[in-house]
Please model this.
Amino acid sequence: MRPETDAAVRIRYEATSGQALRFSMLRRLLLVFALSLGIRVVWAGFSYVTPVSDFANYHDQARQVLSERSFSNLTFKGPGYPVFLAGLYAIFDEDVQKVAFVQALMGAISSGLVFLLAARVFSVGTATLAGLLHAVSPTMLAYIPVLASENLSVPLLLGTILALDWARDRESGRAYGALVLAGALFALGLLTRSAVLFVLPACILLLVYDLRFRRWNFKKPAVFVAGVVLALSPWIVRNYVAGLGITVFGGISGEALYFANHDSCLNGEMGSPPYITETNPVKRGRMYADAARSWIRQNPGRYLNLCRVRLTRLLGAEPDYWAARALTPLRAEDPLLTAEFRSMYGSPAPAEIVARAKAIVDRNLSYLTWLNVASLSPLVLLALVLSLARWREVAVILLPVGAYFGGLTLTVASMRYRMLSDPFLYILLAALLSDLLTRSTELGQRPPWSVKIALALLAIHASIFVHATGLSDSLYLLKPVPAKAPDTRDLAFESAGLTAFAPAWVHRSDVRIEPTGAGLECMVSGGADVSAAQYGGVSLNLSPCDALRLDLTIVDPLSVREVFVELVDAGGGRLARWRWDVTEHPVEDDSRGTYVFVRGKPVRWFVAEGKIHKGKATAANIFVQVAPQSTARFILHRVETGTATRLASQPASH
Model:
């Protein structure tokens, strides 16, 4: 028998080592998957969360898809998650808890995908740690019983990036099959969660230019895009046949852009500007998008500040409110949380139940906040910075996260949206922890281990200090900006008497109105009934007018929830209405303020809402919503009526 050559020995050794490595990876992958699945199955077994808000909409849409076999209610939202739910409802007879077990499986698959993606960039040990971080993530676990589209969109996005990265290193036909699969997964993710669109530039860039080998390739991105278009085409055709044009989402993108970019938006999430009344979702979306772009052009400084707030919140320690609500998803707590949420929209709920529910949410929010402050947020930021030293190798992680955060920063950001990026950030966090705990060099040899330890401790200490001292408040929220004063150059004002008055909107409260030396004082006392909103105020008779100017003082702002002003015609019809949400824009003090009400125009904290009607106003209603078992007072110091003068001053036409 001939002795083996050195080359043959080396080849056999490399093959044996490769087999051992693959076996080790498979064993650890199964371990991560099994552990993640076990935790999630136990969680799903004792949890129950009643669908509310967007999650209730998903539930209703799925039931309609199941009963009508149509998408008639999905004219501007993607059908991915409702169809997924409808399929599960068909199997499990609309049992929400059984859906949680399927979502537990989806979460375990995501943990496995995190492991596989991390193993392509870092060591098997780091990949194992990344998968375990995802497996035990409180936010990821909290969403298991929640009917949220993220349960489906997260594994779809992870699968997309994993398939793309696998195809980047290959030139065979299997590579192009992987690209078509990646395109189909991306399209399904896009139909499940529209924010996935922000990752598209990163996907194309990863394929167009191979950063590791520094070579161009235009065939691969073309195949990927073809896969996306092919998978989207049935939905696009459906929208075109339904009269919505060649569109994927209809009007939701324009609506989101508008609601997150306006004067009353403080944190970059969906706010409460005036609604646009248009029934066609595509036209309404375009109108919203035009309004948003117009506001951005007129307020570039405010928009840049909103972008800064959005990016800070995405990278900061702010917790996910919905994760906090479902963090302890016990059956005993669910009725309390459901009643508390519905009480915000007028459903009866005893004060004791509401207080207990808020205590649960506040406790969970505090836990998640300090978990982020003391560990996750500063370490993730440090991992992001250190990973830049290996940016070519880590591009498959950095580019999707960067593109996604960039898109959210420019448009609208919610802590719930961060779930799509968290799995990628866990990979970088695992690499940092490996360096800190085992002195590895996953994030590069520079800086040395001792400096990395010092930087980690410094980052954690700085994060705790900033949040404990309240310095972070200004980072996560903008100061409210009062609306600009309406143009009154074409209005002539004259004083109105404060003698002809009567109570207005007395609902479940007691109202007392008295003339005082300061003006007309109105006292509204809320009753003991907490099952419904309570209102009260004053109605003033006016000479026919087009506008109104008030000098107003809110004496007890803590007892006031909302302030309303209405103009009413001689027949009792409402011509215009303004609303000030005091809970969103609190009264800074009880100092006297002047407010000019011109139909359709906001004034300071008052938002113009509802339909606007022509005609002269002959009365004004000024009233408040008061908290139960409390008293609110406001004083009208001066009332003036405004009459349009433009037409009277113009020369007669011939």
